[in-house]
# Entry
Amino acid sequence: MNKKQLIIEAAIKVFARDGLEKGKIADIAKEAGIGKGTVYEYFRSKNDIFKVIEESVFSDFSIVFEELNSSTLSPTKKLSNLLEQGIDMFMEMGDVLLIIMELWAQAGRGHVHGSDSSLFVEYYDNFRKGVESILSDGILSGEFRDMNKEGVATLLLAFMDGLGWQFVILKDSKKINKIKSEAIESFMRGISN
Amino acid sequence: MNKKQLIIEAAIKVFARDGLEKGKIADIAKEAGIGKGTVYEYFRSKNDIFKVIEESVFSDFSIVFEELNSSTLSPTKKLSNLLEQGIDMFMEMGDVLLIIMELWAQAGRGHVHGSDSSLFVEYYDNFRKGVESILSDGILSGEFRDMNKEGVATLLLAFMDGLGWQFVILKDSKKINKIKSEAIESFMRGISN
DNA sequence: ATAATATGACTGACCGGTCGGTCGGAATAT
DNA sequence: ATATTCCGACCGACCGGTCAGTCATATTAT
# Structure
């Protein structure tokens, strides 16, 4: 079995439970059933582990997004599916959201694991551009009203993130599912023609 | 001059810059121009400082919210003002958002500064209820479509938070202002009748 | 004079990262 | 076949730096 992956999974568990700073390498090792030194055979440092977790989360998102974006669905369908699947992904992530939240705060602080540019900024720009192009298509086809595309794209991202954060506190999946459908309904109404 | 307040302001500056864990008491003291020991004359512990910051943020929000909610404006006006003012507050908070984000993650983790119930849960429930009652009024008056009130109320909170988090990364107030008006427009359309 | 307040040197717990050493198994020699 | 050498994954004791919180002393206020 791939030990690097094993360590990452243990790390996610530990960081989600204890936080990025309080989560100890020793505990990650214990969780993975290996010695502490072994962790350092696979990762240079604690920050390195953060980075790998961050990348894996975003790559999951990107895959779903690219797949959807390159489909032949109508703009309306594309966007509502994006919301639906995005929210589902957040819900499935569970405690990983807590890690993302902390990483995000780090990104906002501008000194992310040593380097100064953040994956967050990069990926979000990318998502935003993708959403904007769907909006353009929808405006052309007459499905969507005319609008400030960048604003609405940001709004869509904000919606998804915000719901994710609400879930962090609510932790009630029945309630959340009702909220989800209402959210999608409201958003689509807000931009439809 | 109130030294407690002085310390809180210094603490906010330091925590926003360095994060809750990495932010040092010694730096807070230096920032406030006092000795480290003096901090402990006014606060029992680092966690105690967190708690006070959290309370002060929420109480600011509550004041704005209560004032607006008890006004005689129409439901439509109430909600759009709430969005407008809420977003403005987020923007003014600047780096304080980073602190809130970390506190939120702590809250989600469920062991917030020792105690197990979180101010976040409490306050959000409160806001949600307030928004739900505005929505009820608006549905009765025919301004809003019929809807799952709890869902839309959650959505509104998610929306505001989500925009706040986007700002954390965007940091471009001109762009943000355009986004803000488009966001409010879209949201209000989404629930209007 | 003495109470109240301020201070920063000090302490001890904590933890990320290191490094010398172990050990099972693979490769090679006999 | 089996003895010998080699390899590198694995380990955890240890080190060095850090920092929250304490406390004996100093300063200021009454």
